[in-house]
Design brief:
Blueprint (H helix, E strand, L loop, with lengths): L7 H26 L7 H16 L20 E2 L4 H8 L15 H4 L3 H7 L3 H6 L19 E2 L5 E7 L4 H13 L6 E7 L9 H10 L3 E5 L6 H10 L5 E4 L4 E3 L5 H9 L3 E10 L6 E2 L6 E4 L5 E4 L3 H4 L6 E2 L8 E4 H6 L13 H11 L3 E13 L14 H13 L4 H7 L12 H9 L5 H7 L4 H4 L9 E7 L5 E4 L10 E4 L13 E3 L5 E3 L4 E4 L10 E4 L9 E4 L4 E4 L4 E6 L4 E5 L10 E6 L1 H5 L10
Parallel strand pairs: 3-4, 3-6, 4-5, 8-14
Antiparallel strand pairs: 1-2, 6-13, 7-14, 8-9, 10-11, 12-14, 15-18, 15-26, 16-17, 18-19, 20-21, 22-23, 23-24, 24-25
Helix pairs in contact: 1-2, 13-14
Length: about 625
Amino acid sequence: MPAITFSRRHHRLAIRILLFCVASGLVLVFVLSKGGDVVNKVDIEGKAAWLKDSIANLPIYQEDTREFWQKTHSSKKIYWHNHKQIEQESKQTGPGEQGLAFYLSPEDEKIKDSLYKVNGFNALVSDRINLNRTLKDIRHPDCKAQNYLEDLPTASIVVPFHNEHFSVLLRTAYSALNRAPANLLEVILVDDASTKEHSKKPLDDYVTQHMPRVRVIHLAERSGLIRARMAGARRAKGDVIIFLDSHSEANVNWLPPLLDPIAEDYRTVVCPFIDVIDFETFAYRAQDEGARGAFDWEFFYKRLPLLPDDLKHPARPFKSPVMAGGLFAISKKFFFELGGYDEGLEIWGGEQYELSFKIWQCGGQMFDAPCSRIGHIYRKYAPFPNSAKGDFVGRNYKRVAEVWMDEYKEYLYKRRPQYRNLEVGDLSSQTEIRERLQCKSFKWFMTNIAFDLPKKYPPIEPPDFASGEIRSKADSTLCVDTQFKKENERFNLEQCVKDGSGRSGEQQFALTWHKDIRPHKRTMCWDVSSLDAQAPVLLWGCHGSQGNQLWRYDPETLQLIHGGNPRCLDCDPGRKELFVATCNSESPTQRWTFERFNQTALLRWNKAGIDEV
């Protein structure tokens, strides 16, 4: 007689049956003990509740016998490229083809503003280029020789959207479908209660007539990005769920590199390289050639350099501690074992950290795949307000920190003390997932996965090189004042607040260990990008990568020196203007006194600060 093997599904089914039998037996004993008396309804409901709670504590995901990982598969690898299609696309010409920039006619320039305003990008350009436009293959040459498993799991692309521009949304779906094997893919568009008319019946009709592998789900009320993704995931038929943003374009042979590692291990998550689609011209270009995702201790997304061994293999997927956000592939099985997204997170913010920590700490692994490239439109600005009230991003961050970061959450709270008092709701469902899956500690994550993060983003920051007010030697009554200005705004000189001028201002600065200059308790930095003879100094979000934000203070000449091709902070005291100009140690307008400075650290400049950690 042949042996009978039981899958995990059968094992879990047996446990459920056993629980049911035990509960039924208890109810029966209870009834018999009453000697035929009428059983109190509340008592039976109590037993039923016990049974329900017992079942609820079992793993969330229930395996399907048709699921990919329930079967035995060939390890044979094949060449998945569709050369005929690639050759045809390479010859296509026209507006925006090959991912080239498209420029509007003078007539169109006059009418673009209304669409621009409601989308945050030049939507009229999108309307003028083909829905099926071609993209230049910008993958590393080694990608063109890669083979992938012949037997790959099926995939469902989940694309949540709210008031997305019609042609941009359709191009997202078309690009994914056109450049992937037809038998592996479906697309689910999740309408998060859009108010634009084209998002309703016109979209449904278009999809019905032209896109048989696309389904549209309309949510009755605005739910936010996170819950919209969950709504699509629950309706996915594929073995793998691929989340994409609604303003993206998939490049050549993008799908097999995402599916292959997951086919090998269902607890593997794979992210594509994210390229840039210009918000003005829709030109498609590479963002870079890879970096590992990370964060700083204010929860700003950051990147770490590739490890030496990864640099030797430019086509091979490499491990990454944190995903960038909305573009990644995960098996449906693993996604729901992890409980999906924490649906206590509001709208957006923190979800990439929550899922990344959960993946690594709960037995999974995450890679970036250089041979899968998807372009993304980074909007010029957000065109619509969020429906959530208050600091929903802060609440999200606190939920993530409280559940997953253990003692490391204190480093976040030290920088954002206001988070301590935020009400984040019930966390029991999330802590139960962590307990049930026996997830590892955050210390394990920092030691084994993000091991080099503290070198670039130390939990306890080194001391500043200098701090306090910055006073002009050309006119000692004037101080640098950023006046709480916003990004991309110029700042200048004002009367020094500490002299009792009776005015307020923003005159406290730090020359930080990052070697940038920031207003006190702000993450905006002095930035100079212009090459003009008298280039203005602007505020820009701190990126910690030096470049346009690199500054050094010379305590001997009293100069503030900018950049690798040094120019110096200069001023026109009469007009109270600040700018950088060619360094001249004899010029009094280039001399500045910092209120406090660390002489020892400044003298060790080349080995101190970020270069030291």
